[in-house]
Automatic annotation (TrEMBL), chain A:
It is found in: Cell membrane. GO terms for biological process: transmembrane transport. This is Spermidine/putrescine transport system permease protein PotB. The keyword Transmembrane helix applies. Residues 71-278 form the ABC transmembrane type-1 domain.
Automatic annotation (TrEMBL), chain B:
Residues 1-22 form the signal peptide. Its main location: periplasm. GO terms for cellular component: periplasmic space. This is Spermidine/putrescine-binding periplasmic protein. SUPFAM superfamilies: Periplasmic binding protein-like II (SSF53850). One of its GO terms (biological process) is polyamine transport. InterPro entries: SBP, Sperm_putr-bd. Keywords: Periplasm, Signal, Transport. The lineage of its organism: Bacteria, Pseudomonadati, Pseudomonadota, Alphaproteobacteria, Rhodobacterales. It comes from the Bacteria. One of its GO terms (molecular function) is polyamine binding.
């Protein structure tokens, strides 16, 4: 009797989950495995081109120091952008969750999400107009400040960081906001009644309790930034060559899909490795 | 069949005496590169009855891939002479029947006889246009027009220089600066050193003509590599730039129109190519900004102040040009590696 029930239960669960699994298969597993297959080919197998199976594309990564240098540069960019996003986004989320109440919170929320509704390319080009020498930022500052300033951030690493932080900031604000809102205000009141100062409350209560949200947001930012290519290319100019732009070149300019695919999987592996190494810390934060 | 088509078909028969049916030909080219001009296609349809449909590519590799994967889909394809031997070798394009292209008689022998266009011992690409990859200066920022390519390394222009983000172009540009043959580079180390010196001068790389125009208009650049056809367009549009062919020389390229071996409408394709090298078409196109025509009669028909006559019509300038030959995959990879490592070091 119980086995019949268990079987029925299993069938029901399977039935309910199958759309999700079907979606994962079609949207993620199939394209990824096609790319994985490409990464082991010598040529793109279109038309009469001769091709064979090879591991050369992966070996290419180790043959020159170029790719390793760029990968490290991309990881560093990911860390910087994540750090800046946390420093800016967490206070924003705190203010939204604990300080502001009522309708003005909704309005501010809208402002946080608003950039998400515009195309990312449009956003980046807008930054290009703002940051360029003799651009909107410089003219604006000179109109307000009593002394002349020369702001030409365009085609530099700070420009890339600004563009990326602006693109990904909503992630960390939203995830931190959810975590911060779940903190019972009574806990803070209790700490205050035991004469804890603001810093202690932040450090001992708010931060530990909101850490899962904060870390989720950080991961959501770090992973795409490491592979980003559009922002560095447009805002970075000469210094805008990263691992992502090299992968893009393989697909768009050089037409070497197998190498591009192999580099993508190396990036994926390295990112997974970083997350695996960080997972004990992440797990401790969850509990 | 509706009336206009019948009318057009009858006109076509009476005009050429050979066309029997109105065909729809498919042309594969870069977007906005001459063959897809609305008025030109209309004029062709009117005189022959054939309609023209365009498809585009963004790189030579993509063009070759499209030819390989879609046999029979294209009737005319633009191929840079440096790639014609490869396309011919793979059997993607067939020989052109010179007799059915009347305007070919006005194309000079040195272009018609170009070694690469005659891959496999027969004409496989009709010389259409040629041009230079050299550089242009912003005349608002540079008082005296430079005569040497060394202007790129002049520290007075530090942070105001740009070259295109393309490995082959960068390496060949440095080959000219180091006095080497662009088709037979012997001292790659010298090129690496020269490009490495250039890097701190560069503000950004440019990718497209549009990029280039924006950077120049914003005053971001003093001097940047550029294509002659694009330069004529930018100057015609009123940008304060001047195209320079330095004493060290410049990179030359030649574009041909070919007919895929799998085309089923070869007759119409020949007619279209004939129209593309017609002086009447070229003079009108040149007014909007075009590269130099391979047809001597067309080039001569230009007004004297036209960019292509003034700059590229000068035999002394043409003598300094090194025309691009096919590049082996091995060299291509070497150049790409060199360029990537230089960019990664920034």
């Amino acid at each position: 009797m119980s086995t019949v029930l268990a079987n029925q239960e299993r069938l029901r669960i399977f039935g309910l989950l199958s759309p999700a699994y079907l979606w994962l298969t079609v949207a993620i597993f199939l394209p990824l495995s096609a790319m994985l297959y490409f990464s082991f080919l010598s040529e793109v197998p279109f038309g009469d081109a001769e091709w064979s199976h090879t591991t050369e594309n992966y070996e290419a990564f180790f043959q020159t120091s170029t790719y390793a240098i760029l990968l490290w540069k991309s990881i560093r960019l990911g860390l910087i952008v994540t750090l800046v996003s946390v420093l800016v986004g967490f206070p924003c989320a705190y203010v939204l969750a604990k300080v502001i109440k009522g309708r003005s919170r909704e309005a501010l929320f809208l402002l946080v999400i608003l950039p998400f509704w515009s195309n990312s390319l449009v956003r980046i080009f807008s930054w290009a107009i703002v940051l360029r020498g003799n651009g909107v930022l410089e003219i604006g500052l000179n109109a307000v400040l009593p002394f002349e300033v020369d702001v030409n951030l365009m085609f530099s690493t700070p420009a890339i960081v600004i563009g990326l932080v602006h693109s990904y900031l909503p992630y960390i604000i939203l995830t931190s906001y959810l975590a911060l809102q779940a903190i019972d205000d009574n806990l803070i009141d209790a700490a205050r009644s035991m004469s804890a100062n603001k810093l202690t409350i932040l450090w001992r209560i708010i931060l530990p309790l909101s850490l899962p949200g904060l870390l989720a947001g950080a991961v959501l930012i770090f992973v795409p930034v490491v592979g980003s290519f559009m922002e560095p290319r447009i805002l970075g100019g000469r210094v805008g060559t990263y691992f992502g732009t090299v992968i893009e070149d393989q697909f768009v300019a050089v037409y070497n899909w197998p190498l591009g695919a192999a580099l993508s999987f190396i990036l994926l592996a390295v990112v997974l490795l970083i997350l695996a190494v960080a997972s004990p810390v992440l797990r401790r934060a969850q509990t | 069949m509706n009336k206009p088509i019948i009318l057009a078909a009858t006109l076509a028969i009476s005009a050429t005496g050979t066309a029997v049916l109105a065909d729809e030909i498919r042309v594969l080219n870069w977007q906005g590169y001459g063959t897809d001009l609305g008025w030109a296609v209309d004029a062709f349809s009117k005189s022959t009855g054939h309609t023209v449909i365009h498809e585009y590519f963004n790189s030579e590799q993509e063009m070759l891939t499209k030819l390989r994967t879609n046999p029979g889909a294209y009737d005319v394809v633009l191929i840079n002479a440096a790639f014609t031997p490869q396309a011919q070798g793979e059997g993607l394009i067939g020989p052109v029947d010179a007799a059915s292209i009347a305007n070919l008689a006005d194309v000079p022998e040195n272009l018609k006889g170009n070694e690469d266009l005659n891959a496999g011992g027969a004409l496989h690409g009709v010389p259409w246009t040629w041009g230079l990859t050299s550089f242009a200066v912003n005349t608002n920022e540079v008082d005296e027009l430079p005569t040497s390519i060394e202007v790129f390394w002049d520290t007075a222009h530090e942070g105001k220089v740009s070259i295109r983000d393309d490995a082959l172009e960068a390496v060949q540009f440095a080959a000219i600066a180091t006095g080497q043959d662009i088709n037979n580079i012997t001292d790659l180390d010298a090129i690496e050193a020269k490009l490495s010196d250039l890097m701190p001068q560069i503000k950004t790389y440019w990718g497209s003509e549009n990029d280039w125009n924006q950077f120049m208009a914003a005053g971001d650049l003093d001097v940047a590599t550029f294509w002659s056809g694009s330069a004529s367009r930018s100057m015609a549009a009123g940008l304060p730039v001047q195209f320079i062919v330095p004493q060290e020389g410049a990179i030359g390229w030649l574009d041909g129109l070919s007919i895929p071996s799998s085309s089923t409408k070869k007759e119409a394709a020949h007619q279209f190519i004939n129209w593309m090298i017609d002086p009447e078409f070229y003079v009108k196109w040149a007014a909007e900004g075009a590269p130099a025509s391979a047809n001597a009669k067309a080039a001569a028909a230009l007004p004297d102040d036209a960019f292509n006559k003034r700059v590229l019509g000068d035999p002394e300038v043409v003598a300094r040009v090194q025309f691009q030959r096919p590049v082996s995959d091995e060299n291509r990879e070497k150049y790409l590696e060199l360029w990537q490592s230089l960019k990664a070091a920034q």
